[in-house]
């Protein structure tokens, strides 16, 4: 039994034994379908106390050799997100697994927005822990990620406001227990929004590096992004849905329909630095999976500094009218869109996929949106362009005009004045001149932004999505 267990020991995470009854129960991971994991156990009986004790000691020695597994975790629970079931999910489904795996936890139930972020930035004694865990949705993860990244930069003496600086990778891994209305990040890194599966990935010590985008306006840092930066359609959907928070998750559907029917487009300039080398393209159909070869080839020390990029590489500049400008740092897959916004985007290759949807008919735009839900190529339209980039900038047209010192057109001052009135008072019914940026579910305060991808800045307790044939193998469920 011990020899067999040594082959698949990474799936064993705990042991319980009873001395007087001479039995030991070994807990292990059982792979199920749809990328889900389950906690299973097998019980061994023995007539001799000494032999039973030897089993237990040997198993514990083997577990102790697996140093990638966490022993102490700091857990934040959002009791308000999603269907307000975060505390219940943790107590009933996650805490028992942590206990069986002998993982100690300090639990904090958040009391306000950004509670976890502020605590991580200033108060938490991070030296005590092997990782931090959030029980909530994408917003809760974003809070924790911002706190941890900002804390790491401050302790390293790195200025977050400067795009010239190279950010320091975070030393602690982040675990996500999905309990929100949207769990895009968990779905795109594990393949499932199942809390038990995520808890098991944490206790077995999985590690998945992830890229993080820093978003700036001139010399000011705004936010970090790990999934979607969306201007135009997705920015308008978020802006409208924020006014309907009382409706719960249904607000996204209603705001989506309303935004689609409005069919607004926005003018501006996008400039970007294309990715090079072995990073592939957004249309190469090479999906990021567990052990992805493209991500394995990329590491933080291979990044070229911004100064070298500016001097040695050529920026591409595109001006036009856009229904949507999206930057996907991961596939952004979710149950409603199994492929995501960019099916071939990679988690840790130091790039983001820039998707430009130019002005087109409402019918054509609907065809593009529908392809997010089926197997057809959503980029196979004449009005859609997609690029794999290392950084990009966006400037709305009205800011380009306002920055021009020499206004040669007659009546230019009056036109600018009327334009300002239209932007601030939309009762006239004219097309608004600008949208908002949707940054991982938060609205950015500025429209003109610069975005830089930082390769493998954080690590999750995950392993990427495993290939589906693994789950269809009848022998894959035999952990020991």
UniProtKB/TrEMBL annotation:
UniProt domain DAGKc: residue ranges: 68-219
Species for this entry: Sinocyclocheilus anshuiensis
Sequence intervals crossing the membrane: 7-29
SUPFAM superfamilies in the cross-refs: NAD kinase/diacylglycerol kinase-like
Domain of life: Eukaryota
GO molecular function (one): ceramide kinase activity
Protein name as catalogued: Ceramide kinase-like
Keywords from the UniProt entry: Membrane, Transmembrane, Transmembrane helix
Originating gene: LOC107689729
Record's GO cellular component terms: membrane
Pfam families xrefs: CERK_C (PF19280), DAGK_cat (PF00781), PH_CERK (PF25382)
GO biological process, one term: ceramide metabolic process
């Amino acid at each position: 039994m011990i020899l067999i267990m040594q082959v698949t020991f990474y799936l064993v995470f705990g042991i319980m034994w009873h001395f007087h009854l001479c039995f030991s129960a070994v807990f292990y991971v059982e792979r199920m379908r749809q990328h889900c994991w389950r906690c299973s156990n097998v019980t061994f009986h023995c007539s001799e106390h000494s032999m039973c004790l030897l089993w237990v000691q040997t198993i514990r020695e083997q577990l102790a050799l697996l140093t990638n597994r966490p022993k102490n975790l700091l857990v934040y629970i959002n009791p308000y997100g999603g269907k307000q079931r975060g505390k219940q999910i943790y107590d009933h489904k996650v805490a028992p697994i942590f206990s069986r795996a002998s993982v100690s936890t300090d639990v904090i139930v958040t009391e306000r927005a950004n509670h976890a972020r502020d605590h991580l930035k200033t108060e938490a004694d991070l030296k005590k822990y092997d990782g931090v865990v959030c029980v909530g949705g994408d917003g809760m993860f974003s809070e924790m990620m911002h706190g941890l990244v900002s804390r790491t930069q401050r302790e390293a003496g790195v200025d977050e406001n400067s795009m010239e600086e190279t950010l320091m990778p975070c030393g602690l891994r982040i675990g996500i227990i999905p309990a929100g209305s949207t769990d895009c990040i968990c779905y795109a890194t594990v393949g499932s929004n199942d809390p038990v599966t995520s808890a098991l990935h944490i206790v077995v010590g999985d590690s998945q590096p992830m890229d993080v985008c820093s978003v700036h306006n001139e010399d000011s840092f705004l936010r970090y992004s790990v999934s979607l930066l969306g201007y135009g359609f997705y920015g308008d959907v978020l802006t409208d849905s924020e006014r309907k928070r009382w409706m719960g998750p249904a607000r996204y559907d209603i705001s989506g329909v309303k935004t689609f029917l409005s069919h607004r487009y926005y003018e501006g300039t996008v400039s970007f630095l294309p990715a090079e080398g072995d990073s592939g393209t957004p249309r190469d159909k090479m999906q990021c999976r567990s052990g992805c070869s493209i991500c394995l080839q990329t590491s933080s020390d291979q990044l070229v500094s911004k100064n070298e990029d500016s001097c040695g590489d050529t920026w591409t500049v595109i001006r036009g009218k856009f229904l949507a400008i999206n930057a996907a740092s991961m596939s952004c897959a979710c149950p409603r869109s199994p492929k995501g916004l960019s099916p071939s985007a990679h988690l840790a290759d130091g790039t983001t996929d820039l998707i430009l949807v130019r002005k087109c008919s409402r019918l054509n735009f609907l065809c593009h949106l529908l392809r997010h839900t089926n197997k057809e190529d959503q980029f196979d339209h004449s009005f859609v362009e997609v690029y794999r980039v290392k950084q990009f900038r966006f400037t709305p047209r009205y800011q380009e005009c306002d920055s021009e010192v020499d206004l040669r057109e007659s009546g230019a001052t009056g036109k600018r004045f009327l334009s300002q009135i239209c932007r601030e008072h939309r009762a006239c019914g004219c097309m608004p001149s600008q949208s908002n940026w949707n940054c991982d579910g938060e609205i950015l305060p500025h429209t003109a932004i610069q975005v830089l991808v930082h390769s493998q800045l954080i690590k999750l307790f995950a392993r990427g999505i495993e290939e589906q044939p693994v789950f269809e193998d009848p022998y894959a469920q035999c952990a020991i």
